[in-house]
């Protein structure tokens, strides 16, 4: 994945005539630490888990990004996610570079005590790699509030700091900010609402299918549903449910909490089970991938019918499928813009921790709305002015900001006097 991201970056640098020093710097991660975490299991045995943390680029500020627990986590995935974070933070105009971390684990197979030992061991291993002015962690897939709380508690114990500013997404009672839980979804929702007129979208008529019903997928469904959008399908790792008359996200969540998954939840009409693959191919107005990367590839891109794809997951569409979908006229609101609301509010948590002054919900939401609307408008304008896809426009937008911060420190041209 990183090779492909790097190649697209090279083309963008050439097209925008960005100084070669910038590509030379951005083509590789600044540093990645790989460790093996040895965990004592409840039955007394020991198990080893591979774990990584990558600081991709820190020209715009300390590196920032979540940590995920998933069986598919690999070095390539973490470095690619950290590359995307570098651009996402620049698109959102945050004073951060990009980072990411993860553990190769199926956390559903661990007991709560094993999960706690794993979360604390992760921090122990990376405590000198992270830091409030160096690398700041946050939640991602399968690292919910309790995992973040264990991590923050461990970091506080190791450093002797009562308030661990190197970790955001903390519970409010532990220095977290109001508004972080639904920030990622809210950011995507604000971006979509901002584009409604330009995209000729009418919430009263539009239908939406959402892949993934975790933090991001659920809150997206809730916000869009409250605005009148008809949520016709949602999914989790076990499968999907489809109801052409619409689903109530609150009722589906209620079902999930009692039954461990969404399958079996009922909507307003005849609800039926479909596969995750079928969900992606539904005839709807907006498709919201909110689970894993590489869900839409050349193998299924020609069967995607949604006119608009709001990428809430990181990297749900492969570069080849992206080109095919764009050529076929689909509008893709890219991940580095659409899901930047989470890190935007994480930044506010970091700011509040540093100042010791805590904001109320309306101030957090106003800030998020201003940031998302401003940057969505900037990306939309570049998309139209340069006649490029929204993804290319978002990369141009972020790259210009990153290039400015690299060049501001002096390039080869500066030293040669040219
Ligand atoms: N949580 C955050 O603040 C941010 C999350 N993201 C991205 O959003 C995506 C989702 O993250 P979260 O909602 O936080 O994770 P989560 O762990 O809360 O939820 C993940 C959801 O995806 C479902 N899922 C897993 N495998 C699936 C599959 N093969 N098909 C369909 N559904 C599947 C799970 O059942 C669960 O419902 C990830 O790509 C993550 O990187 C991006 C920016 C910030
Ligand atoms: O809130 C954060 O700092 C991290 C969010 C993240 O990992 C992401 O946007 O993919």
From TrEMBL:
Residues 177-410 form the Glutamate/phenylalanine/leucine/valine/L-tryptophan dehydrogenase C-terminal domain. CDD domains: NAD_bind_1_Glu_DH. Substrate binds at residues 64, 88, 346. The active site is at residue 100. Keywords: NAD, Nucleotide-binding, Oxidoreductase. InterPro entries: Aminoacid_DH-like_N_sf (IPR046346), Glu/Leu/Phe/Val/Trp_DH (IPR006095), Glu/Leu/Phe/Val/Trp_DH_C (IPR006096), Glu/Leu/Phe/Val/Trp_DH_dimer (IPR006097), Glu_DH (IPR014362), NAD(P)-bd_dom_sf (IPR036291), NAD_bind_Glu_DH (IPR033922). Pfam families: ELFV_dehydrog, ELFV_dehydrog_N. SUPFAM superfamilies: Aminoacid dehydrogenase-like, N-terminal domain, NAD(P)-binding Rossmann-fold domains. The keyword Iron does not apply. It comes from the Bacteria. The record marks 140 as: Important for catalysis. Belongs to the Glu/Leu/Phe/Val dehydrogenases family. PANTHER family: GLUTAMATE DEHYDROGENASE, GLUTAMATE DEHYDROGENASE 1, MITOCHONDRIAL. This is Glutamate dehydrogenase. It comes from Antarcticimicrobium sediminis.
